[in-house]
């Protein structure tokens, strides 16, 4: 996925979806602090996954 704009766009889309889900959870009565902590953890995981996709893989010595 090495295209930075694609990665940034995907990151922004996923963050927006998570925020919307968090807002809906709070409106439904969930504890705002718990929702915030969950959102932060999910965003950290998204950022780690996208960073891993942006990191070039080691060349396969068999090729």
Tell me what the structure shows.
With 63 residues, the protein is an all-alpha fold. The chain is built from two helices and no strands. The chain has helices spanning 4-27, 32-54. α1 packs antiparallel against α2 (32-54). The longest helix has 24 residues, at 4-27. The protein is elongated, with a radius of gyration of 16 Å. 0% of the residues are buried.
**Main sheet specs:** none
Q: Report mean pLDDT, rounded to a whole number.
A: 84
Helix-strand sequence: HH
Report the strand count. 0
Number of helices: 2
Strand content: under 5%
What radius of gyration results from the CA coordinates?
16 Å
Describe the structure in brief:
With 63 residues, the protein is mainly α. It is 75% helix and 0% strand.
